[in-house]
Amino acid sequence: MSILVRAACLTNYSEVARAGGLDPARMLLQAGLSAQVESEPDLMIPVERVGELLQASALKSGNESFGLCMAESRMLSNLGAVGMLIRDQATLRDSLDLLMRYQVLLNGSLSLMIEAHADVVVLREEVKPGNPQQPTRQRIELALGVMLRLMRQFLGADWQPRRVCFEHPAPRDARVHHRLFGQRVEFNTEMNCIVCAKTDLDARNPSADPAMARYAQQMLDASVKRQLPTLVEDDGRFRRSWKPFIVACLQGRVSLTEVEHELTAQIERLRHAGVKLTHLDAHKHVHAYPPVFAIVARLAARLGIPVVRVPYERWSLRSVAGGDPAERRTAVRQLLLNAAMWPWAQRNYRTAARLGLRTPTFTGRVHTGVLSRQTLRDALRATTSADVELAVHPGYVDDALLQTTTRLRESREHEVELLCSAETRALLVDERVDLVRHDLADVVRRRFRHVS
After folding, report:
1. 139, 67 Cβ separation under 8 angstroms
2. Beta strands in 243-339 (DSSP E)
3. What are the CA-CA distances from residue 432 to residues 217, 383, 427, 451 (Å)?
4. So where are the chain's domains?
5. Pairing between β-strand 163-165 and β-strand 185-186 as defined by DSSP bridges
6. What's the pLDDT at 236?
């Protein structure tokens, strides 16, 4: 599946190409793009063609800084509705958060990550090549140049970063880099990034216009609905429940391409925030539908995420015997729903195994909301697998929870008490259970069973 970017990424291409002695229309056509593509900024085009165009233009013009030259005169308006929205945020930090949120609408191949270190912040950018052999030098220089231009919209035209780093080697002539970034430019580094003071991100934006930001937000919400028409409802939001989503999937009314775009964006959002992902699952287990599970598994394998949940619990009728009658009825109903998942679970186990992903034994689903000390003890004793994932829902009942439609309310506080009790700690020791992360990091007691 080709990664798409807005044609606005080619803003200023013709001017830079002519300055280098090139015919812009011919170069665009040779790269498989329309000669009029610059006049259609919202058109989504394949990233590999953009990469091919920039690389060929740099070679033929002899300008190693071709992409950077394109960035020199970029404006927030080149980002369309996203630019309008981030322009009117209260701080640069707010704007960057929104840029990460809506990055998929601009450039599906670009990842922005913000890393805080003491008194400095590292704005790290990565680009996915259109194909594994395609150089990314021009695209990454264009991306960092555009980022610097965005930051100066907030911090002033004379603002200078503390450092600008590139993974690739230095050009023969670095004058363009110094003209745009200043003198603190480094090459052959470990990452592509801009380093600035942490206080720069919190500087107030005196020209912020909340009314304009709300208008831009409405435009973006409408844009999301156009881009993901089978995933959202008329108000531009996802379906309120897993049931209509699964029904739409079974009826063939959900585009798996849209599912992959959305899941990729969600995972990238977490990675950009600095979260190290150790496993993938989904709210209400909607990823259990095998075609969706296949997408989740592919993403996990591609991104080095070692574990994917298969939400099926191996069970017996003894597991729902005894106890409070109302709780027993709940457990029986959930046991039957769980049993119905077996055909899907078989397919999903095979998919995960084929991709080299771990799928820990799953337990706790049958007793969701009715977990007791005895059922917890029985679940741990009945499980002989080395790796076990225990599903629990601990929490506290507050106003925010009461405003939701969840049935799991008082049971959350009960689970907090149960899981934190001395009896449960003793049970874990007796059953030789080691509590671990999904990636098994820092596991010392290898002879123990692992529960995550």
Report:
1. yes
2. 279-280, 307-308
3. 52, 12, 8, 10
4. 65-201, 310-451
5. parallel
6. 67
Token output for 156: 């002033």
CA dist 357 and 185 (Å) reads 41
Going by C-beta distance under 8 Å and a sequence separation of 6 or more, which residues neighbour residue 204? 90, 91
Q: So what's the pLDDT on residue 413? A: 92
Instruction: Give the separation between CA 149 and CA 71, rounded to whole angstroms.
Output: 8
User: What pLDDT sits at residue 446?
Assistant: 45
Structure token digits, residue 10: 């080619």
**Residues paired with residue 44 on neighbouring β-strands, in sequence order:** 6
How far apart CA 336 and CA 44 sit, in angstroms, is 46
Residue type for position 397? V
pLDDT of residue 220: 75
- Where in 335-424 does DSSP place strands (E)? 361-363, 387-390
Tokens, residue 36: 């009029």
Question: What are the phi and psi torsion angles at 436 (to 5°)?
Answer: -135, 170
- What share of residues in the chain are helix, strand, coil (percent, to 5)? 50, 10, 35
- Strands ordered across the beta sheet of 387-390: 361-363, 387-390, 449-451, 433-435
Whether the Cβ atoms of residue 415 and residue 394 lie closer than 8 Å to each other = yes
Positions in the chain whose pLDDT score sits under 70: 1-2, 129-132, 223-228, 235-236, 272-273, 316-319, 321-323, 442-452
Q: What is the pLDDT of residues 148-178, one digit of tens each?
A: 999 998 899 899 999 999 999 999 999 999 9
Q: Please tell me the distance from the alpha carbon of residue 176 to that of residue 72, in angstroms, as a whole number.
A: 9
- Residue tagged 């056509």 (tokens): 29
pTM of the predicted model, to two decimals?
A: 0.57
Q: Quick one: how far is CA 359 from the chain centroid?
A: 21
**Look-up: residue for tokens 């740099």?**
58
* pLDDT for 235: 66
**Alpha-carbon distance 25 to 37, whole Å?**
10
Give strand pairing partners of 361.
388
Reference 228, options 261, 250, 253; nearest CA is 261
Q: What is the tally of helices (H) and strands (E) in the chain?
A: 20, 13
> Mind listing the pLDDT tens digit for each residue in 271-289?
766 788 999 999 889 999 9
Helix (H) or strand (E) holding 186: strand 185-186
276 CB-side CA count, 13 A: 6
